[in-house]
Structures are given as C-alpha cells and as structure tokens.
C-alpha cells in the first residue's frame, strides 16, 4: 500500500476544497443565470408576440368595419337578388357598388395601401370586383368556380379569415376577409358573399418589427393548420408536425427540433382572428450569454486553482519541514538514541510540539529504570496472585466435599431411633452400617482417587437407607460394563443424581413400571456416565432454564427452591455436580440434561477418558 505523505494530503485537501467550491459556485451561477436569461428572453419574445397580435387585431378590426359597411349596403343586397341576364340592371348595381367601395376606401387613408380588392359574388353567378386603384371585371365563370368554396368556408353572418385569393396570381400574398350576405328582405337565406382581400406585404410591416436576432423568425398559422405568413412558410404542408404542436400548445412555450436544430417557439393565439402568431429562436442563441458566463467562470476558476495550489505548496513547506525533522529524531529515539531537537524560537503549535518532544525525551530517559522495576514487581505479584488463586480453589474443593444434605441425615437418624424403640431387628444393624459407610465415604478429602465401583457402592448404601425409610423396595438397573468399573471419576457425583430422581421423577410414588438405569461408555476420548429414568420428565421451559444455569458454570445457591421434574435442588444438586466435575477436569466437561415431558429424563456426566485431575487435594 502506497504511503501518503502529509504534503500530498495537504495538496489533496486544498484541491478538493477549491474544486468543490468552484464547481458548486460555477454550477449554481450557470444554472441560475441560464434560468434568468431564459426567462428574460421568453418574456421578451412574449411581449413582442403580444404587441404584434394586438396590432394585427387592430388592423383586422378596421377591415371588419369596412366589411360590415359593404355587406350591409342596400345596393349590395339588391345586387344579390337581381336577374343574372339583365345587363342594364347589372351595370347600374355594379357602378354603384364600385363607387361606394372606392369612397369607403379613400375615406380611410390607412386602408388604402393595404387593400388589394373588394368583391361581391351572388349565388346567381354574377360578381362585382373593385381592385384598389383599378377597376376590373373578372370572367363570371372563373368567379363561379370560387363561389362554392367561399360559401362553404365563410361564416354564417360572421367574419372568416381565409388564406386564399380569387385571383391565382395573388395566391399566397393576400388574406381574404369574407362574410355571407342576405338579400334586401333580410330573410334567413344567404344570397352571396362579400369579401375583402388584404395585402400581406403591407400588413407584414407590422410583424417585421418583431426583432428576433439573426437566426430567429416570425410566422403565423391559422386555426386549421395552414401557414399564413411568411410566404416561404406557405410551402410547408398544412397540419404538419410543427403546426400541430402549435395548435396543441395554445399559448404555451415549447422546444422543438426544426430543420435539425433545437429551437424555442413562443405562440400566442389571437382571440379575434384565431391566428396563432409564433416567434422562434435557436436554443443555442438563447443560451449564448449563459455559455459565456460558464466559460468565464471556468477560466477564473482555473486561475484561482493555480494560485491556491501555489499557496498550498508554500504553506505546506512551512509545516512539513519541521515535522520531518521531528520524525527523524523520533526514529532515533525508537532505536534508543535520545536525540534532542534544537528549538528555533517558533512560538506556534509546531514549536510547542518540539518543546514537548524534548521534554518527553528527558523524562523517558529518567523513567526507563522505573519501568523495568515496575515490570519485575508485576511479575512477582502475578506469581503470588496465582498461588493465592490456587489455594482458594483448593479451599472451594474442600468445602464442596463437606456439603451433605442435613435433611437426609436428620430424617435417617429419626428413622433409626424409631426402629430402636419399636423393635430389636437386624434391619437396624443393616441400616446403621449403610449409614456409617456413607458418612465415612462423604468426609474423605481425596475427591479424585475413586472409581466407578466406589460410587456404585455409595449408591447401594444410599438405597439400603432409603428402602428402610420409605418401607418400599426398589431396584436400580446397572448396565455398566465390567471393564469400566475401575475408571476414575469425581467423588459424590452419582448418588446426588439418584437422590434427585427419587425426589422429583416420581411425584406420585414408585410403581412397578418405574425404571432407573445407570450406564457408562468410552467414546472419542471421553468417559460418560448416564443416569436415566422414565418419570414425568421436565417441561420445555424448565429444561431451557436448567440448561441456561448449567452454562453459567456457577454453584447452586443454598436458598434456591426445588422445581418441577428432574430440576436442581438445594445443597448438593445438579448444579454442584456439574461444577465439581468442571473444577476437577476443566470447563470442557460437566453435566448435561435431556428430558421430555411425560417420558423421562437422562443425565449425562462427561469426563476425560484418562482421568488426570488438574488439582491434587
């Protein structure tokens, strides 16, 4: 693993702090400035579109007044119901209508240049056409071809703006404002159409004031998806993807790829004309100021980074040089060479560190002998503590040997007394002898130098006394192989288990079907003695509690009460048997319990195969 120097860490930390600061400030500035600039450009474009829409509606409303005047003229209404083959009547109405149109146009100077023509067409096929500054008569057949289309498109008594011209040469350069006209009787039936053609070139002067930069442009789409302005947009197919997006967006701003370039489109729909006035600018042009800010921030950040790293280098040298000297001196000190560092008059933290190092070296040289003396003293105390612990453990063994159930002795003596009073029987002699053997066996101090046969003999004496006390005969089945009778085990461990069974395994008394069985075996370097019964056993919760206490490796307290089934008891109980085996042979050995409620209990004493006790009495 590569070592990291202090100077490298200083440079790394300075670099991380500066880069994070520059990145956070630069990114925040760029994002915020981009949002602000996008908002300003969007607002600017919306204001221009709103202004153009307002001026367009104003112009169209002026032409609507002219359209209302023409459609409501009495001569125009009478013309709609004239006989188509009456040449004189046609001449009279045609002359009146043209003069009326000319007077109406010349009265409004602003309409003069923008008006292309005014014409009225009746359902009888005759028409009157007034072209601004010229008087023309179109072929009625040609007019008749346009009439049906006009009647379908023009609104019923309302103004309709149409991207068409009655003259093919003007197609795409004019917008037609049409309205259906009724006859002089003002009935429900429409008799014809009155239309005004407006030159887009003159009206476009209003839209050309929309300044959108070098790559921005302005266009108009009607409510059917047809492109009205400019003429170049008229070459696009109606209801294409762009016009569909504009109609669907309403007055919302959206980004769309147009001619391979991401562009922003700002649309406003005129409530009067149902035209969608749209302004478009490239996204890259909108983001150019923000990109300039980002480039500037990057350059300034790089310059700042270079200056900061140079300052970090100077700062690091002022710290690292004395620390390196201190490091070399400490290496010599580790070798046992007490090396002092010359204090160069520094008053900062490094100067304090050097002063503390010199003081430490001085004290270490004085204290090294005390350390050796302390180590020798600790070793001496450890030996004494070990001897004390050994004596304490021996005393614990001695006390465990002398623990005898006083209730058993008292009850036995009282039974002997009763026998002595009532009768002079050989049973008394047998019982007293068994009791004497038990007492003599219990008070011996050498706990380890006994055999399985010794423990079985002690159990036999216990059974003699117990049968005289209870008046019931009961046999224990011993299935230990003869080859294991001389195997070594701990004194006073088998009889407490038998006593525990008699006290707890058969609460309703002994029956003929009750069995207590003692067995032993050698396996895997272990010597195990088993004591089994077919009594009531233990409940799962009581078995778990007993196993937990066995794992704690502690002696049973005298005040502990008796439990259900084959549980531990006061005095020399299961706990003490388990702990005594561990004290003699080690923590890896001891007593284990297996039991099933209603079916019996099995107690297992586990000891080493070659019984070599750790402690001699």
Automatic annotation (TrEMBL):
Its main location: membrane. PROSITE patterns: HAMP, HIS_KIN. It is an enzyme of class 2 (transferase). It is found in: Cell membrane. Its EC number is 2.7.13.3. The keyword Lyase does not apply. Keywords: ATP-binding, Cell membrane, Coiled coil, Kinase, Membrane, Nucleotide-binding, Phosphoprotein, Transferase, Transmembrane, Transmembrane helix, Two-component regulatory system. This is histidine kinase. It comes from Paenibacillus marchantiophytorum. The lineage of its organism: Bacteria, Bacillati, Bacillota, Bacilli, Bacillales.
């Amino acid at each position: 693993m590569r070592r990291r120097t202090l100077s490298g860490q200083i440079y790394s930390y300075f670099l991380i702090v500066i880069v994070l600061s520059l990145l956070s400030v630069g990114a925040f500035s760029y994002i915020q400035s981009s949002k602000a600039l996008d908002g300003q450009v969007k607002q600017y474009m919306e204001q221009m579109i709103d202004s153009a829409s307002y001026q367009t509606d104003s112009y169209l409303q002026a032409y609507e007044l002219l359209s209302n005047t023409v459609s409501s003229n009495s001569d125009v209404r009478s013309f709609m119901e004239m006989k188509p083959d009456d040449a004189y009547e046609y001449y009279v109405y045609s002359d009146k209508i043209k003069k009326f149109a000319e007077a109406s146009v010349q009265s409004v100077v602003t309409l003069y240049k923008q008006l292309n023509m005014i014409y009225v067409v009746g359902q009888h096929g005759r028409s009157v056409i007034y072209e601004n500054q010229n008087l023309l008569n179109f072929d009625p057949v040609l007019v008749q071809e346009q009439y049906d289309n006009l009647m379908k498109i023009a609104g019923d008594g309302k103004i309709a703006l149409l991207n068409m011209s009655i003259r093919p040469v003007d197609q795409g350069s004019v917008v037609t404002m049409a309205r259906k006209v009724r006859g002089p009787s003002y009935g429900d039936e429409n008799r014809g159409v009155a239309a005004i053609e407006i030159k887009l070139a003159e009206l476009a002067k209003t839209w050309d004031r929309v300044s959108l930069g070098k790559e921005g442009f302005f266009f108009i789409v009607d409510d059917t998806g047809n492109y009205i302005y400019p003429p170049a947009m008229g070459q696009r197919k109606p209801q294409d993807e762009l016009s569909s997006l504009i109609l669907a967006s309403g007055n919302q701003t959206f980004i769309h790829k147009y001619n391979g370039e991401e562009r922003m489109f700002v649309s406003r729909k005129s409530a009067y004309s149902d035209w969608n006035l749209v302004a478009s600018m490239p996204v890259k042009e909108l983001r150019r100021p923000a990109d300039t800010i980002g480039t500037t921030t990057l350059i300034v950040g790089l310059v700042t980074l270079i200056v900061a790293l140079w300052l970090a280098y100077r700062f690091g040298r002022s710290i690292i040089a004395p620390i390196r000297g201190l490091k070399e001196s400490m290496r010599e000190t580790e070798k046992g060479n007490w090396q002092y560092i010359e204090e160069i008059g520094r008053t900062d933290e490094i100067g304090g560190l050097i002063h503390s190092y010199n003081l430490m070296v001085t004290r270490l040289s004085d204290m090294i002998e005390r350390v050796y003396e302390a180590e020798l003293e600790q070793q001496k105390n450890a030996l004494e503590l070990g001897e004390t612990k050994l004596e304490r453990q021996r005393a614990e063994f001695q006390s465990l040997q002398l623990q005898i159930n006083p209730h058993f002795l008292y009850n036995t003596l009282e039974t002997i007394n009763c026998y002595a009073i009532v009768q002079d029987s050989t049973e008394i002699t047998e019982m007293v002898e068994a009791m004497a053997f038990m007492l003599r066996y219990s008070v011996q101090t050498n706990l380890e130098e006994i055999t399985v046969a010794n423990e079985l003999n002690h159990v036999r004496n216990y059974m003699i006394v117990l049968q005289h006390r209870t008046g019931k005969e009961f046999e224990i089945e011993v299935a230990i192989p003869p080859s294991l009778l001389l195997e070594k085990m701990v004194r006073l461990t088998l009889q407490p288990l038998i006593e525990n069974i008699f006290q707890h395994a058969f609460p309703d008394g002994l029956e003929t079907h009750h069995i207590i069985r003692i067995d032993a075996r050698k396996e895997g370097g272990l010597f195990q003695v088993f004591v089994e019964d077919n009594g009531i056993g233990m409940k799962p919760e009581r078995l778990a509690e007993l196993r937990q206490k066995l794992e704690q490796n502690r002696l049973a307290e005298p005040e502990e009460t008796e439990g259900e089934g084959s549980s531990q008891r006061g005095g020399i109980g299961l706990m003490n048997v388990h702990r005594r085996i561990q004290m003699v042979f080690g923590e890896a050995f001891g007593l284990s319990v297996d039991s099933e409620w209603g079916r019996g209990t099995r107690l297992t004493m586990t000891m080493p195969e070659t019984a070599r006790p750790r402690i001699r009495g």
